[in-house]
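Researcher: For the annotation table, I need structure tokens for Malic enzyme. Please keep the output clean. Sequence:
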Amino acid sequence: MHRRFIQQKRFQSSSTKNLIPIRTSLKGAALLQQPVLNKGSAFSREEREVFQVDGHIPYDVHSLEKQMVRAYAQFKRQPSNILKHAFLASLRDQNQVLFYALVSNRLKEMLPVLYTPTVGEAVSQYSDLFRRPIGCFLSLPTAHSMKEQLQSHANAAFRYKYPPGMKNHFLDQDRPFDIVVVTDSEGILGIGDQGVGGISISTSKAALYVAGAGVDPNRILSVVLDVGTDNHALFANPLYMGYKHVRTRGVAYDHFVHQFMMNIKELFPGALVHFEDFGLNNAARLLETYKPVLPCFNDDIEGTGAVALAATMSAIGVTKSNLADQRIVVFGAGTAGMGIANQIRDAMVEIDGLTLEEANSKFWCIDKDGLLLKSNPKLQGSQHDYARDDEEVRDWNREIQEQPNLRLLDVVKAVKPTMLVGCSTNARAFNEEVIRTMAEHVERPIIFPMSNPTSLVEVDPADANEWTDGRALIATGSPFPPAKNPITGKDYFIAEANNALIYPGLGLGTIASRSSKMSKGMILAGVRALASVSPALEDPDAPLLPDLAGVRKVSLQVAAAVVKQAMEEGVANINIKKDDDAIIEHIKVGMWDPVYRPLEYEPEDSNGYSSK
Ligand SMILES: NC(=O)C1=CN([C@@H]2O[C@H](COP(=O)(O)OP(=O)(O)OC[C@H]3O[C@@H](n4cnc5c(N)ncnc54)[C@H](O)[C@@H]3O)[C@@H](O)[C@H]2O)C=CC1
Ligand SMILES: CC(=O)C(=O)O
Ligand SMILES: [Mg+2]
């Protein structure tokens, strides 16, 4: 049947794009089982007839809004967050538009379920809760066919074909994916090696690109590189679904990752690779290796650094000081901790004109073995930049005199930091004595306990607020309820300094500019854009960052700043005016919205669905 029941509208602006029909040859049960196209009860009368859906669903036609009411009620009836998470995963697997419409409309409530902290549980219980696979599972024993496996995902990917009038659209029609979110699952949040379950962190991060920045869900590939696991609990679980082998390391690991990166470069040229939750020994090393090779970004290093810098810029706006005035203690000198230090350090150089050495000297970094010192033979990567001279600490008091290493409290006493950042996974390490000592020396202590999930936070913001008499400027990695100011009785809203507030916009800006890389300058431009919308700019008692629930609005600003910077640096590959309005419109046109688009029947369609 060739009946066209919706006239195709010319693609003219961001508001008309949702009317462009999708063409498909799928019918009946096959159509209902395709989550990209399935509308469930929202298939119109005409669509039901044309696509032979009648008989497969109950008679009444429901709007997307009505479907959302039903889905939300079902969501609410799930007795725990992990079951709510599983419900959302099923919904995503049944009806992509309904899933994203629901999540986008109730982002505040859905984020802690879809993302941190619940995603930690979803990852660790992946094999027990498994229903249907979402994403791409690349396992070491089947590496010989990795290219075919990736190609098979590309073949199955849904592709929009836009009308010819859309010259400046940023999507590359010949490339199936714009963003590849990949984890090797060794350092999931703060819960470590999770084997194949890490796929859920990739799919959650991918979902936030969609809900948080309007990236087309059909143009993101979520990947887990399964190279085995050193997590003994997973080995003990007979239901574990991954490669049951000790984690592969060394040359074999590097070879596998290289094969993956080269396949991405060849099959999806120009796509942005988003590294997520790689282990400490690989994260920075891989980023450095592949930055010059293809557009890539490490969320835990660069995304976390970016959101922490934005929160810092906002905090120093309140304290009326400069970045260069800060004395910063970073507790947990791993992937995120060093990413944050590097980002703030580079901004001290760029914004305040310090030399690199001067900027490095503003940091005291502490890891498992205490304050990082130059004499420590175990220093690695960026830790070398921040290690202190042994001479400097020779006369410092130690709580335990015979203990050679300087602990957090020793450092706080000696350094009198203005800022304390936690990325240690060491729950409650910022205890009352540490916080009170810090607060003795600074008027507005800046305290960022950023470890996730919630259970691992270095200090509960309510405690930090109480112990500083409400003077602390706080930002956390996971969501927390407001803390009561013990003096004024007013609620202090806690900023969520999670990389999810900025990576969607950074990614959107990079793909919208069709950039050959995500440069330091592009990231800093995104940070400035985020900092410029901080509520604390207007009111010093307001949170340091905008609410994560407003991330979609933030993402547009961040992406626009990124595109502009990419154009200035000459790495963009688009032909539009370098004017704010033109850039915003360019980005909006390419953003995906969770709305049902009309369907048209196309019998000759070979892969089941396509769009014009
Ligand atoms: N808020 C956010 O956006 C983000 C938060 N994070 C969180 O930061 C934490 C760390 O993540 P990564 O840096 O990726 O892990 P990582 O494993 O690379 O780094 C953790 C570091 O903390 C150190 N550490 C462990 N126990 C310690 C202790 N008792 N005292 C001092 N240092 C200790 C480890 O030796 C390691 O160097 C996790 O909880 C993660 O969820 C990570 C990325 C983004
Ligand atoms: C937020 C994030 O990326 C992490 O905790 O690893
Ligand atoms: Mg992460």
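Researcher: And a one-line annotation?
Model: The chain has a mean pLDDT of 93.
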